[in-house]
Amino acid sequence: MKIAIIGYGKMGKEIEAIALERGHSISSAFSSHHPFHAQSEIDADVAIEFSAPSLALKHIRLCLDKNIPVIVGTTGWAEHLSNIEAEVSDKKGSLLHASNFSLGVHLFWRMTEQLSELMNQNKDYKASITETHHTEKLDKPSGTAITTADLLLKNQNIYKSWMLSEDQVSEDSTLPVTSKRIPNVPGTHEVTYKSKTDQISLIHEAKNRKGFALGAVIAAEWLLDKKGTFTMSDIINFT
Which positions are annotated as active-site residues? Predict the structure, then answer.
């Protein structure tokens, strides 16, 4: 399989290494020094896009115009998803997007759902979410944190919405989500329930970018012969 990498930074290089290990080839690698645009020549079976929130929509649309299936790991563009889904359908394209490609994160989300259902019966505990990433990550909170918050909201009656907060103190029915940016942190997400007597925490800590890269390449392999818009939930099934 020939893969085009759109966003050849640290994550792009990890994707390249994993793809080569799995017997694929890299046909193109686009970066700020070699940007992907309408005139770009691209000979690929699939593209994997990890760039920046301000570039993701442009890159997705260019892939659709060039009839290239695209895996998107960039977050921060979710408000445009319905429009992109319509464009994928109109152009009979292929798109798989995820706020996180790590298998461990999807297990973390499943446990978040189960814990939030249990804690819904224990009103003495107040919930919060904290995410920590490297300083190069621009969007706050992370897409993974937003997905985590949405899962928690779905399973608890006390919280009606979430908000980006500087601390972990909840206000009425609002779930606080705190973002931290520290050098060289691949990604850590924590769901915490605090009461006056104790604390319960569920943590996923990425040790490096390899788990994200592997998930993206597996997603590319899966998407190759499909049409439509998909997520990692279409690939991973823990039931």
Answer: 133, 137
